[in-house]
Write a structure and sequence with these properties.
Blueprint: E1 3-8, H1 13-24, E2 29-36, H2 40-50, E3 54-57, H3 63-69, E4 76-79, H4 81-89, E5 94-97, H5 105-112, E6 117-120, H6 124-127, H7 130-140, E7 143-146, H8 149-158, E8 166-173, H9 183-187, H10 191-194, H11 204-212, H12 214-226, E9 234-238, E10 244-250, E11 255-259, H13 265-273, H14 287-290, H15 305-315, H16 319-335, H17 343-354, H18 363-381
């Protein structure tokens, strides 16, 4: 049966992986809308290739270029932040939400309000606005399908089971490229080294988050909202091979783990085909060639980000949103050569210490809090 899909963030890595899967079975899909932030040229090419009804560029200044590139195609064009929200609000069987950062919050909410299925790859939706988003999911009868490999693994391991039977959920972390580096080496790490992930091909910001372990801290907060078993039942373990993507232990002592290659097309396919399965181009795991699977406890002295995230969600209120905003500011500063790698966590910790905000009750509250926290983080940067 042909299904309709909207892809928010079509030119990013997750969007590209999704379109690769659709490209392999085009008769199964109707592309409703594709969006990008600034890359009008690539967006136009994709819109033409997949016969999208609508193409939206977030940067309204790029709209003329998009219109020129799609002239004569019959594809509707739009630009600006409100156009992104309107694209997300269009009815579709599934909406893939892969816009990075808080720019994706309003489009995710618009998709939720349609009451359909949302394949969620936007971390900020649950980190900064978890309570607001989950309340909207319940109100509108929407379905959240987690795209992150770790949360998708948990989702698969929970299938057919009750959360009340869960003893522990364990998120696995690769440890990033600096897992064995000393504190002195970490202080001298460069952006080029930080974005060179050993297992995954990801964007710069997410790769830096993996290197600091903040990515796992953010996923810990997401897991708290997606799988409400209590913070005491959520754990993190470092697993350098990235073969086991996460595990669920049940009260009878059984532990279910989801294994797969380090390729985002696997969890994306799980979401696209849910509740069924679909073919992917991935080679099956060759366990003898992998040889061994190893596990280590996180080192929160060298990599304090997971501790900061755990403290933030335990504190509640606006702390998770503050954590996320400060981290985005700090990572951008590191990638721009303004601060050291080890300063990223220091900026986040200072922001959490200096800035206290109440629990946001609406998306507007979240966005206001995000702006204030970014200003606080920017002020902290001036002291480094």
């Amino acid at each position: 049966m042909t299904r309709s899909i909207t892809i928010l963030g079509a030119t990013g890595s997750v969007g590209a992986s999704t379109l690769d899967l659709i490209r392999r079975s085009p008769a199964d899909w109707k592309v409703e809308a594709l969006t990008a932030n600034t890359n009008a040229a690539d967006l136009a090419k994709l819109a033409r290739e997949f016969g999208a009804k609508l193409a939206v560029v977030g940067d309204e200044a790029k709209l003329p270029a998009l219109r020129d590139a799609l002239a004569g195609s019959g594809i509707e064009c739009a630009g600006g932040t409100q156009a992104l929200v309107e694209a997300a609000a269009r009815p579709a069987d599934i909406t893939l939400a892969a816009i990075v950062g808080c720019a994706g919050l309003a489009p995710v909410m618009a998709a939720i309000q349609q009451g359909g299925a949302i394949a969620l790859a936007n971390k900020e939706a649950l980190v900064s606005a978890g309570d607001v988003m989950t309340a909207a999911v319940a109100q509108y009868g929407a379905t959240l399908l987690p795209v992150d490999s770790e949360h998708n693994a948990i989702f698969q391991c929970l299938a057919g089971n009750s959360l009340s039977d869960v003893a522990r959920i364990t998120l696995t972390a690769s440890g990033g490229p600096f897992r064995e580096w000393s504190a002195d080496q970490l202080a001298a790490a460069t952006p080029k080294q930080a974005v060179a992930h050993p297992n995954w091909d990801m964007g710069a910001k997410i790769s830096v988050d993996s290197a600091t372990m903040m990515n796992k801290g953010l996923e810990y907060i997401e897991a708290h909202h997606l799988f409400p078993v209590g913070l005491e039942r959520l754990k993190i373990v470092v697993h350098p091979q990235s073969v086991i993507h996460s595990m669920v232990e049940y009260r009878d002592g059984s532990t279910l783990a989801q294994l797969g290659p380090s390729d985002m097309r696997v969890p994306i396919a799980s979401c696209l085909a849910h509740p069924a399965r679909m073919d992917t181009p991935m080679e099956p795991l060759d366990l003898p060639s992998i040889g061994e699977l190893s596990f280590f406890a996180p080192d929160e002295v060298r990599f304090p980000a997971t501790r900061l995230a755990r403290d933030a969600i335990a504190a509640g209120g606006g702390a998770p949103a503050t954590l996320n905003a400060a981290n985005e500011v700090a990572v951008a500063a590191f990638l721009g050569g303004q601060i050291r790698f080890t300063d990223i966590a220091a900026v986040v910790e200072q922001a959490l210490t200096r800035y206290s905000a109440p629990k946001p009750a609406s998306l507007d509250d979240v966005l206001a809090l995000d702006g204030e926290a970014r200003a606080q983080a920017a002020a902290i940067l001036e002291t480094i």
